[in-house]
Records
---
Amino acid sequence: MFILTERYRFCVLAFDTIKQAIVTKSNGELQDRIGRPAEAGQMAVIDPDCRVIGLHLYDGLFKVIPMDPTTGKLEEAFNIRYAPARRSSRLPLCVKGPELTSDVPTAWRSFV
Amino acid sequence: MIDIKFLHGCERPTIAVLYQDSKESRHIKTYQVLLREKEFEDGPWSQGNVEQGSNILIPIPEPHGGVLVIGELTIGYLNGSAGGTNVSKSIGMRNTIMVAYGKVDADGSRFLLGDYQGRLHIVVLQHSEGQIVELTLETLGNTSIATTLSYLDNGFVFVGSAFGDSQLIRLQPSADEAYVNTHTLSLIVVIVSGWY
């Protein structure tokens, strides 16, 4: 079981059938020095074939932890930068020009 | 970025990403994760302009693969292969916001969905000859507002809730009775810290 905390720490827990106890297989920190915390909240996804763990912790970055599918051993994490969708909370741009002169009321037009 | 899920049955690790653009339209793109190059490569398919209220992706296990896209008015099934045509099926529903889902069958032919009002629904993917041909949605009953839904076995479902009491419920197989048997309801209180 993979657990990620809001403070960017993670651990992998497993049940040891011989010891009859829960053991920590791996743990560590995933915080980056720079980056804006993800607007939509932290997300963690695991490949169904156990090849990678994917994390969305900062906007515009997808963090990958490669994993050995047979042993479950984790390798060093790296970031993939992707073109982020532009922020939706942008201020509406108010344009008053001849190209926008239409029947649309001004208040509506400012949000086009 | 609204949701990310790994797809099943892909040669290389592949994610499906549901995101919103600056015009508040929502789209789905797939990317392959290249471990050696530490890069993304465009995945097998993509779908622009999915329903505007789409907020959850549910990956469908093999042999079908693909994703369910849960919106506020529709549920859609999307799949595609490199260079091939996209497969898409969708159904409408009463306006609602789904907040949790849980897989019922290992092959992913039924999923439980919980909405923001605590209604429990089930979506069934009907398949014939290896193809998903139809989706159906049925409302089962009311529970606490679900944060997580886990199908256990024999019709038992754990409804984990951060807003109310968590419940253990049993789904009734017969259509004559209420689907959710609230008699076997046992309350297990979940203590949630101040984050909610």
---
Amino acid sequence: MEFSHFLQINLASLPYFIPELMLVATLLALIIIDLVMKKPSSSGWLAVVALAGVLITLITVVNQYNLDSRSLFNGMLVLDHFSLFFKVLFLLAASLAILFSMASIELAGRPVGEYFTLLIALVLGMFLMAASTNLIMIYISIELVSISSFVLAAYIKRATRSSEAGLKYAIYGAFSSGLMLYGFSLLYGLTGTLDLYQLANLLSDAVAQNPLVVFLAVLFILAGFGYKIAAVPFHFWAPDVYEGAPTPMTAFFSVGPKAAGFALLIRFFVSGMSQPSLVESTVWQAIGNVNWPQLLAVISAATMTLGNLIALVQNNVKRLLAYSSIAHAGYALMGTVVLTQEGYFATLFYLVAYYLMNMGAFLVVIVFQDLIGSEKIDDYRGLGYRAPLPAVAMGLFLFSLTGLPPTVGFIGKFYLFAALIKAGEQYYWLAVVGVLNSVVSLYYYVKIMKYMFLDRPSEEKATALPVAFGMNIMLIVLMVPILLFGLYWAPLQEFTRNSIQFFTGVF
Amino acid sequence: MSYFDLTFYVFAIGAVVSAGMMVFSRNLIYCAVGLLFALASIAGIYVLLGADFLAATQLLVYVGGILALLLFGIMLSVKFTGVELRTGTLQMLPGLIIVAGLFLLLLRMIYRAEWAVQTPGDMLPTTTTIGKRIMTDLLIPFEIASILLLIALIGAAYMARRERS
């Protein structure tokens, strides 16, 4: 094709790329401010600039909602409601992470220029992950997210466990990227294309496709995606990284990159490995002669079961929440196995609920860490009497994580199970596993609450703890939507349902 | 067997053997040298496939740049030279079974699959095509890669910097 034709497409795509350009501008502004300003006084400004950049980007993203779905940059990226939904989620998670970082004493007195620069780069990577429709673009966006996260996990250099977190993250990341690339190369060798839509076309044409190749390719690629969402058996990094990373980053890792992994997984399977069903418009069919939905179902069941069982024996709250976040990846995966609009809606809805309750739970961990200097469950004894508001908030977040009414966690789980049951008998077993797991999870969530409320603090530690004003505000801000959406979830439901709009290709 | 095949097998065997040396040797210098030969053999295979630019990059960046740095790193950190690495093998039997199974599976797959084979034409320089595509349809991956490298640089500088206490 003509050289100028490509250039025109690239130029024409730029107006639809404004949010990403805003992020890049923020990133560069942060680097320059960090260089120009004097060190100790600049950290507040850096946070403000990062937050302002994220909020301006949020406005530009919301502005894109009235645009039609379209392909950008010669099929590298797409702009559709599905990607916009995730972009909004990422920006909300990032703004909370910036606020957490400012409020926590874990990062006080450290140079934060690189910290916020890397965080913004991470958000940019997640944006691209949610929008990529080309295997090269998928790989580069995953790497952008990974490399920024490695450094952020190891940000507290003097702390051995932080360095350990960064190193483990990097090693597992390199390994799973390698496997994923091998999977990509198999698909490329089979079809000769890197574009997801062409891939779907070619895979559906070849009826006599050797299922073994496609199966192995999917398996290897799932190693990359599974690493991002911390699904079993690619979850080994999660507990150590979550425990060692600075807690605001742990909160962010457990929500942001995980949601980005889900965005990528759903887009890859919807656009590249399935085609719309001819019978019904809200259902997809798996192609490539491989029953990969069944594979996802098995991974989902294994992920929630293993995550929950190991969480039972944890005595460090950060580690416990790490295993719980593995389990939640399993729950959210349930929605992706049925290949219906209902299922994807349930997954997206659950990710929003998970964002609210998990960010909240980690915020309480930050509050207590700043006050008592520990995240051991034993040290949480009697905190319900010493710091009532954070403890009550923790109770609410944990109830929501368990999936009890009247919280948004309950609604999210309800939709997931409903989607599975609606899709037919084939996945009843998965719903049963999910319900059993929720019961198991109740035990360890309640264990934290028992320590906080039923055990009295020891005599010398019976003083009330001074919780910072800002922390209280943030806790309340996170508690309100959990209760609100638990009772009146129609707006969130409508917003999410409108987001299941995939760009369908240009053929 | 044609000369082409013969050359290919020389490079392929070279790559496998030196990769084995890299993994199994207990001396870091030997490991690095093993890696050197593995990377160079792969570059040879790239040449055979007509990917001249890729081969040159492989030699310049990996063999010439990264590996030289790696060797300097090992030699400058006195602690490592001559020290036996303490490596152990855990779960020998299950590991062997899984690896052998995977190997057979991959072998079966490689022979069974109908690959989208492309017969190479005349060996022309690929740089023009690469340059054009990087400026046209692969523009965005190229630009994002530059941000990726910038971030990697910032991260590496941060990790390497001494923290003021």
